[in-house]
Amino acid sequence: MDSLTQIVLGAAVSVAVSGRRIGPRKAALLGAGLGTLPDLDVLVRHGDAVSDFILHRGWSHSLLVHAVVTPLIAEAAMRAFSGLREHRVTAYLTVFLCLATHALLDAMTVYGTRLLWPLDDTPYGVGSIFIIDPLYTLPLAVATVWALLRRDWSPRVGRVTAVALALSTLYLGWSLVAQQIVDGKARQALANAGLNAEKILATPMPFNTLFWRTIAIDGSRYYNVYQPLFAETDAAQIHVHPRLAETGPCLDMVPSGAAVAAFSKGYYRTFIDESGFRIADLRMGVTPSFVFDFRVASAEGDTWKTIMPERVRNARSAAGDIGWLLNGISGGSMIRPAEAASILDPSAPLLAALPETQSCG
Question: Is-above-0.90 flag for pTM?
Answer without folding.
Answer: yes
